[in-house]
Write a structure and sequence with these properties.
With 442 residues, the protein is an alpha/beta fold. Helix 2 crosses helix 7, helix 5 runs parallel beside helix 6 and helix 7 runs parallel beside helix 8. The protein has 3 domains: 153 residues, Nitrogenase molybdenum iron protein domain (Rossmann fold, 3-Layer(aba) Sandwich); 192 residues, Rossmann fold (3-Layer(aba) Sandwich), CATH 3.40.50; 44 residues, Single alpha-helices involved in coiled-coils or other helix-helix interfaces. It has 15 helices and 15 strands. 41% of the residues are buried.
């Protein structure tokens, strides 16, 4: 079967307008999706669990009973030993990398008698969305559950579509048990996001929702964040994508399998190849077709490849301009001495350096998080980390001497802004002549 994968563009022939157009993501039918998702949100807000059950039966073909399940202990979950060991290894690496991200409190004396401090606090209640559908992602349970537990969130719940038997996929349950997540809500799609944002009879409303998903899930997150639900979202995480930068020494088979590993996620995934120097896209095109024929999800993968492309560049400076314009979710540098170019990478979700670092390791077990900004949002968002589950509170404490030192500047700035009460709050203290007034131990 013929396909248009890796339609090639020469960097030198691209003007500014064409370059910008090339790096723009495929347009979503936003109006239709927004209307459909808003209808689902309104239904769940009004009808709660009943709406979730009805929509789950409609979209997933099963009616889970009950909707909310307790997670069993890891040893009680029936999975093969090799599966258990793989998830345990992934949990270990994720735990080690994310544990190192826990911030320390900072305290600074900005001037004598003026102490400023910052401390972190967990987001108290969090909802973790685990996609299902054509490619269930139990690994996402670890990616979200591990930092949530390390951050100290007191209420944690997973929402994921039920399997054909109406229960949670056993691999998702295993990952939840390893990550310390006690409950699973059996719902997917926009209805799951709405249930966590508004709360239902079965589950408490959460403060923040995490997790990747399709266009409906992403739209639900955006709509709810700007609604009366008073809920925060992690980041825009839609269809998966990868960009591979390869020079003439890169292995075409390595490149082909990296491209295909993202294309197989779904028909709306996008893969981009940037070749440098004498590495021609023709060699990679042949390798992609050869490996594609061996994939069980070849039909889905082929459709994703049909809206993918490649760009030929003369050097790494040109390649990095493409990288930073596109702002990929995943970036793979299969080039000589890749570390030399990391300083030039400004916009990317997660970067994979050298021939022995396939994107797959970050998806599963290296220790980095695979919940990343897509659709160009890597320009202004980071991937999920322990920080995503934390808030930061600042504290300040002044002695009288500190207030005497800083007070005149504060009063003058308040005067400039015509905020007399601000000025007076300082002035009354500086004029206090009773040494005992406000002198309790600080």
């Amino acid at each position: 079967m013929e396909f248009s994968m890796l339609k090639n563009w020469n960097y030198e022939a691209l003007d500014e307008e064409k370059l910008e157009q090339l790096c723009r993501r495929p347009r979503m039918d936003e109006a239709d999706i927004t209307r459909a998702v808003q209808d689902i949100i309104d239904d769940v807000r009004t009808n709660g669990d009943e709406a979730v059950l009805r929509l789950t039966e409609k979209f997933d073909g099963v009616r889970p009973d009950p909707l909310l399940r307790d997670v069993r202990k890891p040893d009680d979950i029936p999975v093969d030993d090799d599966v258990r060991k793989a998830f345990e290894l992934a949990w270990h690496n994720l735990y080690q990398f994310h544990k190192a991200q826990i911030p320390q409190s900072i305290e600074v004396q900005t001037m004598p008698g003026v102490i400023c401090r910052r401390e972190s606090r967990p987001v108290a209640s969090v909802g973790l969305y685990i996609p299902g559908g054509t490619a269930p992602l139990p690994s996402t349970t670890l990616m979200l559950g591990v930092p949530a537990t390390l951050a100290g969130s007191s209420y944690k719940i997973i929402a994921t579509p039920p399997d054909k038997n109406g229960g949670p996929p056993v691999e998702v349950e295993l990952a939840a048990a390893l990550a310390g997540i006690p409950r699973i809500y059996l719902a997917g799609g926009a209805q799951a996001i709405a249930a966590m944002a508004w709360g239902t009879k079965s589950i408490r409303k959460v403060d923040k929702v995490f997790g990747p998903g399709n266009q409906f899930v992403t739209t639900a997150k955006m709509l709810l964040q700007n609604s009366e639900a008073m809920v925060s979202m992690d980041l825009p995480a839609g269809p998966s994508e990868v960009m591979v930068v390869a020079d003439e020494n890169a292995d075409p088979d390595f490149i082909a399998t990296d491209l295909l590993s993202q294309a197989e996620h779904g028909e709306d995934s996008q893969v981009v190849l940037v070749t440098v120097g004498d590495m021609g896209p023709e060699r990679i095109r042949e390798a992609v077709e050869r490996h594609l024929q061996q994939l069980p999800r070849a039909d889905i993968t082929r459709k994703a490849l049909n809206h993918s492309f490649s760009v030929s560049t003369a050097n790494m400076d040109q390649a990095l301009e493409i990288v930073n314009r596109y702002a990929p979710e995943h970036l793979i540098l299969q080039v000589d001495q890749p570390e030399a170019y990391t300083v030039g990478i400004q916009h990317a979700g997660s970067v994979f350096l050298g021939p022995w670092t396939p994107e797959s390791v970050g998806d599963y077990a290296s220790g980095t998080n695979h919940t990343l900004p897509t659709y160009g949002y890597a320009r202004m968002y980071s991937g999920v980390s322990v920080d995503s589950f934390l808030k930061h509170i600042t504290f300040q404490q002044l002695s009288r001497e500190g207030l005497e030192a800083i007070g005149p500047a504060v009063m003058k700035m308040a005067e400039v802004e015509h905020l007399d009460a601000h000025k007076n709050a300082v002035d009354i203290r500086l004029k206090a002549d009773n040494p005992a007034r406000g002198s309790y131990d600080t």
